[in-house]
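Quick one, T. Sequence first:
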Amino acid sequence: MSERRELYRDTNGDAWFLGREPANGHAFIIHQPSAPSGGRLTHIELGDFLRSEPKGPEHQALLRLIGTLVNVPPYA
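Structure tokens:
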């Protein structure tokens, strides 16, 4: 079972998660469409997700999360 963290949920009910396979640390995106759209989960490789067009708010949410991993000293 993969671990996951919600990145973004739109007003239609679609949700995107950052997932990680605990056994090997492999990270990926999970897209869960809303129930009316079928609700079937899709696993997307990170590179494929970031290269996909158009760039939506779910992409921005992932980039913001990645940005939190960088420790930046305060401006002097």
